[in-house]
């Protein structure tokens, strides 16, 4: 069933939400600003990260890169380092590129129009809508999973959120309840979705719009949102060699787009002559968004200086100190492995 609704019958729902937001908005540091740069960074940081987990990272990032110019002038590896702990490193790479784009194409001034914001590297419709509405009075709803969930419950609407038209469909639905102050409305929906209308066990009794919520009155809240398509998860096996000698080990920087672009990793192969130096191996499992990784890491303690030098010369690996490895960005499982090796 696709519900067709017209008119302004539902505007009072948006207004009620605004009232609630006025008294219940989460007290977050980025709520005190309308600086589009800071709002942009926080939207990207908190897309997949809980506020409590990401807040320190966000504050450190803003402290080091307080504006577009500082970020644009920074070295990419330093930007990656400040992103450490947040995962999804491609976002940090895109943020850095977009900062440079703003310097080159917009004379260092963050663009105010939704369509212009959308041209920036790594910024999609959701972020463009959030930044333009919060900072510049833009009128686009920032439709994300929170909108899908709240709106499909509010209207007991079984439109499939895995359908490719879901974004357009829920944007139109949002327009029915959206008051004039779209910036606050978008933030109110974010807060309602994360604090009250949660995916599991929503707090309907405390919800400011429960009187209008059809799923609640039908006692069918758990039926919504409807999602039919499951995203396929792929199993992937990786092999690494932790090649070390005298407190140093060998690394290289990943180039490909596949996973972990621009992060550092260990060699993925060694010549036969080095195999006798293998002392042990360990298998680590790790989940990425659509991948289950099984990573086998061999510990290679090289006692021969000749083998060590030959291997480096033939493969152009970088040498780094185990103690100082925190100054480089490694994928989480490799980072954990290095930290554990320090304890041994
Ligand atoms: S009443 Fe419950 S299901 Fe409906 S919008 Fe509120 S929290 Fe969500």
TrEMBL record:
Signal peptide: none
SMART domains, alphabetized: ENDO3c (SM00478), FES (SM00525)
Superkingdom: Bacteria
Domain HhH-GPD: 45-195
Keywords: 4Fe-4S, DNA damage, DNA repair, Glycosidase, Hydrolase, Iron, Iron-sulfur, Metal-binding
Reaction equations catalysed: Hydrolyzes free adenine bases from 7,8-dihydro-8-oxoguanine:adenine mismatched double-stranded DNA, leaving an apurinic site
CDD domains: ENDO3c (cd00056)
UniProt-listed Enzyme Commission number(s): 3.2.2.31
Cofactor: [4Fe-4S] cluster
Protein function: Adenine glycosylase active on G-A mispairs. MutY also corrects error-prone DNA synthesis past GO lesions which are due to the oxidatively damaged form of guanine: 7,8-dihydro-8-oxoguanine (8-oxo-dGTP).
PANTHER family (UniProt xref): ADENINE DNA GLYCOSYLASE
Family, per entry: Belongs to the Nth/MutY family.
UniProt-recorded name of the protein: Adenine DNA glycosylase
Species this chain originates from: Chryseobacterium rhizosphaerae
